[in-house]
Amino acid sequence: MTAISISDLVYTYPSGVTALNGVNLEIASGERVAIIGQNGAGKTTLSRHLNGIYTPSSGTIRIGGEDTAGRGIAQLSAHVGYVFQNPADQLFAKTVRADVEFGPRNLGKGEEEVHRLADAAMAATGIAEHAEHHPYHLSPAERKRVALASVLAMDTPVIVLDEPTTGQDHVAVTQIARIIDELHERGTTVLAVSHDMDFVAENFDRVVVMAQGRVIADGTADVVFTQAEKLAEARVEPPQMLRLGAELGWDAPVTTVDGFLGELREQVPGA
Ligand SMILES: Nc1ncnc2c1ncn2[C@@H]1O[C@H](COP(=O)(O)OP(=O)(O)OP(=O)(O)O)[C@@H](O)[C@H]1O
Fold it and tell me: 15, CA 20 to 30 Å: which among 118, 217, 241, 242?
């Protein structure tokens, strides 16, 4: 059970670019939060503060009530698993299994537990058949799922996913959605940075919109995706279902396929 509290977070890269301009965000334990916004809005920079890849220029981050200041990646990795957008930033071992087992072993778990966690993570991500293969013999989409498996296997109370669906086909996106559901059932706090608005609307309780290093909107998908001005500022297109409902002249905001079908049945009895 791990909440996240971010206060007045400012981050300036050594190059002088200020990527975060005072971010305040309270995330409850077990919440599923998507962070959206145009390229360069600061989403990745923000997410990388959660496991200590970056440390604040000013402001504070608390994970499970504890200030992250002075705690490095090694200490934070027991609490926050971070799945990189690009698996090349994460994978290093000679086999998929070795990569997936590294995290839990590094956290000091016993060998039996390491195998159990790795097998479960590889099965959940659909890469079990590649366990003994070199990650670089897999397709980019499969490698991305190895990166996801290697973080799932660490069984951390918080998981951060940077662009989890990029390059994934429909079957894999469904698998990733199921994994997010299972993590939610276990009480894991899940944050994802995503440009995939349909995926965001279907799988997250809360949507945080960023622009120019700040949070400009925050709420459920229904609330956020109907704020046209904020979406324009963040250069974000609403999910397809909302656009379709609007085209059909529906007043109620509908952001998911199930929501769309429910509204359709109300509007067209017998549909
Ligand atoms: N390593 C870096 N050095 C200097 N500036 C950087 C670095 N990484 C990102 N930036 C700058 O920081 C700002 C925020 O970038 P960031 O990658 O956090 O945005 P983002 O919202 O995640 O974008 P994207 O959707 O493209 O991933 C941008 O102006 C970007 O150019």
Answer: 217
Same domain, 3 and 66: yes
Residue type, 119: D
- The number of domains in the chain is 3
Compute φ and ψ for 152, nearest 5 degrees.
-55, -40
- Ligand 1 pocket mutation, candidates 9, 20, 44, criterion most atoms within 8 A of CB: 44
pLDDT tens string 89-112: 878 889 999 999 999 999 999 999
Range of the domain at 117: 80-155
Task: Indicate if 97 and 163 belong to the same structural domain.
Answer: no
Is 90's C-beta closer than 6 angstroms to any atom of ligand 1?
A: no
**What global pTM score does this model have?**
0.92
pLDDT tens digits, one per residue of 193-243 = 999 999 999 999 999 999 999 999 999 999 999 999 999 999 999 999 999
SS3 assignment, position 64: coil
Task: Name the residue type at position 123.
Answer: A
